Fold this sequence. Notes:
Chain A has 288 residues and is α/β, with parallel strands linked by helices.
Amino acid sequence: MTIQEWFDKRKEAQIERRQREARMEAETVPGLWVKCVHCEAQLTKKELEENMMVCPLCEYHFRINAKTRIAQLFDKGSFQEMFKNILPTDPLEFVDTVSYKDRLENAHNKTNLDEAVITGIGTVEGHKVASAIMDFDFMGGSMGSVVGEKVTRIIEEAIKQKLPVVIITSSGGARMQESALSLMQMAKTSCALSRLDEAGLLYINILTEPTFGGVTASFGTLGDIIIAEQGARIGFAGRRVIEQTIRQSLPSDFQTAEYLLKYGQVDMVFKRSELKEKLAKVLEMHGV
Amino acid sequence: MSVLEFEKPLVEIEKKIQELKKISAESGMDLDKEIETFEQQANDYKKELYTNLKPSQKLQIARHQERPNFLDYVSLICDDFEEMHGDRTGMDDRAIIGGLAKIGESRVMLIGTQKGKSTKENLEYNFGMPQPQGYRKALRLFYHANKFNMPIVTLIDTPGAYPGISAEETGQGIAIAVNLKEMAKLSVPIIAIITGEGCSGGALGLGVANKVLMLEHSYYTVISPEGCASILWRDAAKFADAAEALKITANDLIKFNIVDGMIKEPIGGAHTNHQEMGENLKQAILDSLKELSGMSKEELRNQRYEKFRQMGAFIEG
């Protein structure tokens, strides 16, 4: 992009923003407007939804939940959920400032989900895949026994049906309230993937905002192909922990999808709008 | 030797006994009976104290500066050891050390995390916090052991994988993940032993084994109690509550079928008697090797898979 082009684009964005603000003044119904986290533009909810929850001005990718992701990625009506009957419990009877039982109930009420992952089989432009889609809104997408079990079962199902596996991550890491039982889900899911390897089946990761900790250090990065969504933050340790450890500030783009691409940690970075088409192409190029 | 806060009453009693002995020697009074009684009481107290330690107290023993580290165990339990260096892609991470070892009559691949005892050593070993290159070195040694049919023994004592810039840039998460997956495929017996701190994925990266054991005062957890307290309690000072809630001790983890057994420590903790600790550890390793020696390659892989496959707690509605 030349400097002139950059100025033109910026001017266009300014004009659009002013128009938006004028529209907003006329429109006073609350709840219809959303402010972009990144460029602070006022957007209508409708236009944001129509643009796959991506800011039309600055391309900021809003975090989306599992159901929205399924609707965007899978052919309409093709996704059949499996293992919905695997439900969380409280093996440690864990209580911090709030009990784990209450946290689970609050998460259920907020999301209408039973856990932080949805598993099932669906088609992407006709390609049949076994899939797990994580949901950050349910306790930060944290991995406890249920996430580990459902991910393991869908991998086992893929081996049984000889299907490729696509896992879309969005998680803060392992779930503290299940302590070592959560930790062992890293081993369990990775062991299952060792069998997928031996069965010669394709495994694709799609890493989305945010993917950290125990998920990054297990099934989240074991894909034969690792795709990251534009702008997603991905890492093992959290930014704050690293800053505290090394006592220096980090580059602003540290741990973004683009940063990881530069360091050879992911295969591809795609915009949300091109994700489905690109995923289908990668599947196609493996003959599945 | 540094004294932990909860050990102070014990130190007081021992001081009193020393004083009595001194008085007896100087004055010629016969205090043998009294001294013996006090010594008996001190011993009983000590036994009781160390068998009923709270998780937060075990935490302190597990992190004790003078606790035997990996290289101490190498000299305590190995009849021979030759280190193998490097990940073959440009680094020899000193936080993970491994090599060819002879323990009794058994030839094994011995790998572990190494902590220092002084500032200088801690800088060299990065406080026992491995980088991706450390996990990749371990993986290289796993493959070597697999090729030459050597059992693998890992000794784990780490506060976690290193949280740093280059660790992220070179794939800390991926390095651990790959180890978890590849350990599942190996056809040799694997024994993993938590000797001190078994913190998070950084510990698990050497822990997918046929048999998992813990030293009596070691701990194994998904996150450090301090880290957990600062997130969930919003106050790192609540670490003792977090240590309790996280169920981090050997006894807890045996109940959850995550750990297979506990190795006794000398009364007072491993740091009080390296020799005895070394003997206990060596015996546990030899027993485990013997136990696994009759299994075929396929049985070893299946047993390891099934062991981790059943871990977790959920309701199937």
